[in-house]
């Protein structure tokens, strides 16, 4: 007989895990779903941010979540420069499909090799004052090392959605993938808008890296675990649907955690990705994508 307390804890832990998947996927939802730039190096950028934050926080005792907010603008500027290179050598020439994908694959390898050379193959970890604490809601436990990153993730996602809907630049980001010429009539440069948006996606990777280093140790190859998951979340939601990305990430996290609790960790990826295949078979545009006539 199933223990309801065990299931409740698994669901709550899955929601907290889903928040991590959400902030990890949100940057890719912007670059892939809205800009049509398949940045498969996004998880590697997240791990790079985790390692940088660990290097900053370990000797100083600074909180990694605050450090993530501080380095996010730096990563955003690096992302903006990276998109300019991508546009100059691939997108402008019409080679963004396969050669552009190879560019980001190569970037992912460069990041991983650089992390091994600088930090070695050992795992990186940041000790926090709240790492071993937990908040109890009746029989359900909320570990602060999961809860605080989840709250930060939700706050950043809410700020992103608000910016996209309320600001001119945010609305232009949503429009640039749909009708670039119409955007020019409004006096906006599509390349500048895409540069801003891609920089924002990399800044979100830095914030996700801060959340990740609080939740678990990382090494140079930790991004491999997230490549399939973030792509699955973005596709499951429907390309370009940021609220859908949040919901899909939460669903993904709950299914993985409940499956791991009931049947063992080895089953959780299989069940979660089976859901992705089932949804795509029944609704190819994703859960929140728009059907095409």
Automatic annotation (TrEMBL):
UniProt entry tagged with the keyword Electron transport: no
From the Swiss-Prot or TrEMBL record, state where the protein is found.
Answer: Cell membrane
Record flagged with keyword Membrane? yes
Q: Topologically, how does it sit relative to the membrane? A: Multi-pass membrane protein
Instruction: Provide the protein name.
Output: Branched-chain amino acid ABC transporter permease
UniProt similarity note:
Belongs to the binding-protein-dependent transport system permease family. LivHM subfamily.
Please provide the record's keywords in A-Z order: Amino-acid transport, Cell membrane, Membrane, Transmembrane, Transmembrane helix, Transport
Residue intervals passing through the bilayer: 6-32, 44-62, 68-89, 101-121, 141-164, 196-218, 230-255, 262-282
Q: Which superkingdom, per the lineage? A: Bacteria
Q: What is the lineage of its organism?
A: Bacteria, Pseudomonadati, Pseudomonadota, Alphaproteobacteria, Rhodospirillales
């Amino acid at each position: 007989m199933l223990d309801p307390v065990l299931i409740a804890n698994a669901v709550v832990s899955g929601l907290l895990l889903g928040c991590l998947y959400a902030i990890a996927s949100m940057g890719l939802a912007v670059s892939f779903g809205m800009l049509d730039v398949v940045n498969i190096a996004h998880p590697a950028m997240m791990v790079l941010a985790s390692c940088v934050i660990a290097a900053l926080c370990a000797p100083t005792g600074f909180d990694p979540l605050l450090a993530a907010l501080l380095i996010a603008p730096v990563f955003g500027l690096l992302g903006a420069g990276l998109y300019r290179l991508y546009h100059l050598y691939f997108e402008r020439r019409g080679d963004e499909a396969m050669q552009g994908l190879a560019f980001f694959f190569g970037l992912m390898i460069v990041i991983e090799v650089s992390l091994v050379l600088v930090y070695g193959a050992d795992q990186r970890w940041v000790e926090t004052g709240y790492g071993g604490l937990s908040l109890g809601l009746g029989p359900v436990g909320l570990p602060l090392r999961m809860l605080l990153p989840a709250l930060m993730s939700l706050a950043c996602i809410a700020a992103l959605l608000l910016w996209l809907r309320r600001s001119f630049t945010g609305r232009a980001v949503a429009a640039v993938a749909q009708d670039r010429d119409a955007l020019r009539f409004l006096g906006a440069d599509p390349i500048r808008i895409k540069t801003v948006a891609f920089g924002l996606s990399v800044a979100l990777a830095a914030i996700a890296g801060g959340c990740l280093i609080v939740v678990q140790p990382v090494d140079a190859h930790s991004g491999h675990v997230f490549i399939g998951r973030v792509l699955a979340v973005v596709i499951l939601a429907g390309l370009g649907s940021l609220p859908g990305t949040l919901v899909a990430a939460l669903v993904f996290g709950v299914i993985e955690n409940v499956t791991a609790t009931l049947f063992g960790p080895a089953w959780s990826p299989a069940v979660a990705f089976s859901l992705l295949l089932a949804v795509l078979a029944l609704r190819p545009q994703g859960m929140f994508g728009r059907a095409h006539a």
